[in-house]
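Continued from yesterday's entry.
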Amino acid sequence: MKYVIIGNSAAGIAAAEGIRSADKTGEITIVSDEKYHTYGRPLISYYLLGKTDRGRMRYRPADFYQKNGVSPLFGVRAEKIDAQKKQVFLSDKRVLPYDKLLIATGSRPFLPPMEGMEGVKNKFSFMTLADALSLEKVLSRKKKVLIVGAGLIGLKCLEGIAGRVGKVSVVDMADRVLPSILDEEGAAIVRRELESKGAEFYLSDSVAKFEGDLARLKSGREIPFDILVVAAGVRPNTELVQDAGGEVARGIVTDFRGETSLKDVFAAGDCVESYDITSGRRKILALLPNAYEQGYCAGVNMAGGEAVFDRAMPLNAIGFFGSHVLTAGSYEGESILFAEGERYKKFFVKEGRLNGFILINCSERAGIYTALVRNGTPLSEVDFSLLEERPMLMAYPRAEREKMLSREV
């Protein structure tokens, strides 16, 4: 069998591991438009922060490809697939035949139209190692940085560079930081932590235009800067499947086995729609654990095994300096709040089940909450009044405790 995987991040690596779990000898080729060994994208801010280095950023050991019989093609882009002839056309003019193909092309930065941006000299995105390395070259204690976007990517960039520049300003149309995962109260805690490190926020505002290294906001305020980082969101890379005639909505459409509408073409990761079990809706879940599970499942099925991944849900675990944030599920249903100083818990209970939660600076043993959401456990089966205050296995009946311990929850 000839397996081709387009993408070298979590979903693509997982697919290779899934294939090898069922097929020890088939040919596996990974195509990557980046020139690096697989690495953990969430670590690029820690690289700039000085908390990790290039070696420790690897998502798998240095000998991963060799040990797993994988042929990596670095610095080459897949430009087209022919699903009828089962061929992948590469940017270096090579054509790869395949028996099974995985699309794990991830996403790309969204660059909103902003007048005058073409005249900004030092402008960057913050999604890849190449982005981080390019940004690092221009950082200095004298520089002022403007970040457009107060979401996950923008704030991780802020964390990475705050101690290496003179000033960081962040502008966002939303009225709070991390608007996609935090409510107002939770966002205020994280914002205070970031402001204590010198960050300045311009929220409920946006850039009207750039005049060289000056940003004029719609509110009339002005922000001078030396470096611009645009972190205003991402868009899934769906074109390979769409151009080949495959079904695409907001992302590539797959079944629970990971197969697209194109025969023998699978897809996984940030370019794919997932069925969110907590909301009952299909959506893009651009999350590393989700990408890995999707990729591994697809790999098993590509190699003739049987696997399904039908338990996808939103799940974010992030830290900013001293603040630790864990969120999961959907914020639908009755809310239950516990707040004390900078510690914050908010649970969402719907139809007798925990449907989602926000935890800030109190994430000890939070995997118990995550398991409740993912498994859809009826709260009538546990002592949730005990779990609300402190997650512990004693809140479960004995038989369930033993089952969870056996799974190392």
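--- second protein ---
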Amino acid sequence: MVENTRLIELIGVSKDFDGTQALTDINLYIRKREFITLLGPSGCGKTTMLRIIGGFEYPTQGQVLFEGKDLTAVPPYKRRINTVFQKYALFPHLNVYDNIAFGLKLKKMPRDQIEARVKRMLKLVKMTGYEKRGVEQLSGGQQQRIAIARALVNEPEVLLLDEPLGALDLKLRKAMQLELKAMQQQLGITFIYVTHDQEEALTMSDTIVVMKDGRIQQVGDSKRIYDEPKNAFVADFIGESNILQGTMIQDELVSFCGQKFPCVDSGFGEDQPVDVVVRPEDIMIVGEDVGMLTGRVISTLFKGVHYEMMVEAGGFRWKVHSTTMQPEGSQVGLSIVPFNIHIMHRSTEPETRGDED
């Protein structure tokens, strides 16, 4: 259960690398027991932010607070934070047991306590019985589990994970997503996770922070980020979207593709330019005579659980997902219910995390 207590706060954090701005005025808080994901394309600043939280980089401007105390200049080894990197950095000359126990031995912890903790971690990551195995004999997924166990055995209050599943195949990656979330809930510690994989973020996170060009674009839970994107970048990056320009005629009425459509959005004013977002799965293919728009199917692709069709209608090329296939060249109608039309301001400012969360 996520607590409302703010564990970590970034206040006005910026980072400059030799004249290149990696982060700009980041304001973000992270709660106790939260699984929060920093999501964005390569170069957006998510790993830089993670490294600043871990103490591997220091901000050019701003502060990092931990339980209200300034942590900005505190070195990594003095923070109650551990990190799991994409390259697991296991010691090849040590077996599984000694890799996990390494940090505890440095602290000169009694042998019986080390053994108890290592056994607990092996059970947690489902690797009991592998104690004497050399790490180079393990699969990629097993190595990743040992890297997580080594980070967790020190009982950190926060675990940082920098794209730890990036080297795994798709099936194993999906399985590990569920296992990581289960571990986090069982241990009750804060996970700060970095990825560029939208599905991964939506599957695992209590909160997602979407980033672009060193700035936060939107903060929210998976449903809010998917259903109510803050701007066109978020709508396009999270899942698949049809994004087109329209005009908000009045509350709950928008015009695009030469037609007027009822919607559920309000507060945009009258005759205002807006961006309109419609998800491919929210478009219904119907008969020409009953469609809100009519058009022609120009391509059909089978995607396993649905068909993906491109339909030219109203001067726009729509991406439509449906379990019913329409052949190329067929004339169809498209229908969209008001709830599935999402309206955004044409240009919006990046977001900071508000108290409503």
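The longest strand covers residues 6-17. The chain has a mean pLDDT of 91. Will compare against the first tomorrow.
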